């Protein structure tokens, strides 16, 4: 997955926005103001922090040792850092980004979730 593909995929979700609150080099992807992905898109290898169910996070880290690790500068229980440089299947990286988005949306207030469902 290229940085451009990662950015485009993150922005393809309903109400997703890119922001740079930490520095101009760190892309933060949000839905309704809540972070679901964070990446230094110019870094090599390309990595992205993604929210994850805690039990699933442990399983993924075990199955993909060194490629999926506890989230860098994040709550290690709920966030993973995923290497997105082609070492993992792009399909898996996309699923993890989508899962992160879905987890964040599920935690939004009901009114915000309802606004996301509107065309």
Detailed description of the structure:
The protein has 119 residues and is of the alpha+beta class. The chain has helices at residues 3-11, 54-63, 90-106, 110-117, and strands spanning 16-19, 27-31, 34-39, 47-51, 68-70, 79-83. Strands 1-2-3-4-6-5 form a 6-stranded antiparallel β-sheet, with helices on one face. The longest helix is centred in the C-terminal third of the chain and has 17 residues, at 90-106. This is MmcQ/YjbR family DNA-binding protein. Keywords: DNA-binding.
Q: Largest sheet, described in full?
A: 6 strands, antiparallel
Radius of gyration: 14 Å
Provide the succession of SSEs: HEEEEHEEHH
- SS strand fraction: 15-25%
* End-to-end C-alpha gap: 29 Å
Which structural class fits the helix and strand makeup?
alpha+beta
pLDDT under 50 segments (min length 5)?
A: none
Strand order across the biggest sheet? 1-2-3-4-6-5
The beta-strand count equals 6
Overall, the morphology is globular
Number of helices: 4
Give the averaged pLDDT, no decimals.
93
- Proportion of residues in helical segments: 25-40%
GO molecular function: DNA binding
Protein name: MmcQ/YjbR family DNA-binding protein
Pfam families: YjbR
Keywords: DNA-binding
